[in-house]
Amino acid sequence: MFGRLLKKEIKELLNLGTIVSVVVMAVLYASLGNVFKSAVEKSTAGQKVAIVREDTGTIAKLAEKTLSDVVNVVYAGSDLKEAEETVKKEKASAIIVIPEDFSQSLESGEKARLEIVWYLRGTGLSEAVSTGMISSLIESLKVQLASFVLNDPKKAQLLFNPFEVVQHTYLKGKLFENHSPKEIMNVFYSQNITIPILIMMLIVMSGSSLITSLALEKENKTLETLLTMPVKREHIALAKIVGSAIGGLIFAGIYMAGFYSYLNSLTQDVQGMGLNFKTVDFLLMGLSLFLSILAGLSLCMLLGMMAKNESSAQLLTFPISILALVPMIANMIMDFSNLPGILKVIVFLIPFSHPIMSPKLTFYGEYGLILSGILYLLIFSVVTTIFVFRIFNSDYIVLGWQGEKSLKFFSR
Question: What distance in Å separates the CA atoms of residue 240 and residue 297, rounded to the nearest whole number?
Fold first, then answer.
């Protein structure tokens, strides 16, 4: 009988409309990732600039030629107004102005002045990449002009880049040769975002479906009919929780396939760092995630029994989903072992913290903390589920606090 109930819950959750909406969202994320990647590639190739050279000196001519060799020059002349019109027409990124005293200043040993007028079409990341590339070209121009003034390219290169920085990083006692802290932290950047979003998505989708389903059954009086059937009430509650968990995992897999494609267009993985997870690591992370989903759905079940109708059920998933924000923010700011004592206790007690922390902990080799978290999630899920069973066996599930029997179930 439990199998039939479980099949019924999964069938109700995995309806055509819900599946199509999740697939469309996943495809949308993947498409956005490809579009963003294409936009960045276009912004990094063939930068368009205008060059206004007011100086006729040799160094000014050299500066113009050097820039023309590496960027797409849409205008080269001495008329600033004409350059502005060309930039607007060609949608170029900037106007580089070489003032009339540019060559004279450098030849006399004084610092020259170079003006850049930027034309931003927005504040997105593609614009940041575009302006960053032009700025780096200006930096390379400094070396070229210094080589000309000093008549010694090697000495000029040495002056602008006098030493090479080779960085080695120790993290939790593990040495990463030739890697900076920034490179290592970039590897964990995607985990700090995707896993909390995954958990919140699971809770919002599975939890809201569970709460709404229970509220509709109470509103349509079908729950009363189900409770009169020759089946244990514990099986009804367990079927709803497990069915929602299975459906949530299926939705998460579809959703995250597209979301990873989107996120990979924003970040780059560092190669050769040895940040590979073992099979046992994936098993521990998966178990932690699944138990946290069960814990969240058990809490959703408790809230769902409080919902009187469908409209009130819509707001009841917010308190649970917001709990995922606390460990997400804490994990982004500081590792769990470095948190203050009271905050460490709070983060550990939140069931959604453990799958968020598990990728870092497996990498650090802190398996004791992972296993203790899994044990806590197991106990939390069992206790919460037992509490749900007791409510289901009382009159509260139908009558609320008006039932005499429901008022006594806490004292059992």
Answer: 9
What is the bridge-based pairing of β-strands 94-98 and 48-53? parallel
The shares of helix, strand and coil residues in the chain, as percent rounded to the nearest 5, are 70, 5, 25
Buried b (16+ CB within 10 A) or exposed e, 109-119: eeebeeeeeeb
Q: Position of tokens 């276009």?
A: 42
- Domains observed in the chain: 2-35+177-411 (no CATH), 46-163 (3.40.1710.10)
CB–CB of 284/370 below 8 Å?
yes
Q: Write the burial class of residue 278 (CB in 10 Å: 0-12 exposed, 13-18 middle, 19+ buried).
A: exposed
Tens of pLDDT, residue by residue over 371-385, are 999 999 999 988 988
As a whole number, mean pLDDT of residues 340-369 equals 85
CA dist list (Å): 116 to 136, 142, 247, 356? 13, 15, 56, 45
Q: How many CB atoms lie within 10 A of CB 319?
A: 10
Distance of CA 301 to the CA centre of its chain: 28
CA distance 55 to 299: 73
- Residue 48: strand pairing partners: 72
The pTM (predicted TM-score) of the whole model is: 0.63
Q: What count of other Cβ atoms lies within 10 Å of the Cβ of residue 364?
A: 18
52: which strand partners? 77, 97
Distance separating alpha carbons of residues 287 and 306, to the nearest angstrom: 29
Distant-in-sequence, close-in-space partners of 257: CB < 8 Å, separation ≥ 6: 26, 30
Q: Please return the burial class of 237, using the count of CB atoms within 10 Å of its CB with bins 0-12, 13-18 and 19+.
A: buried
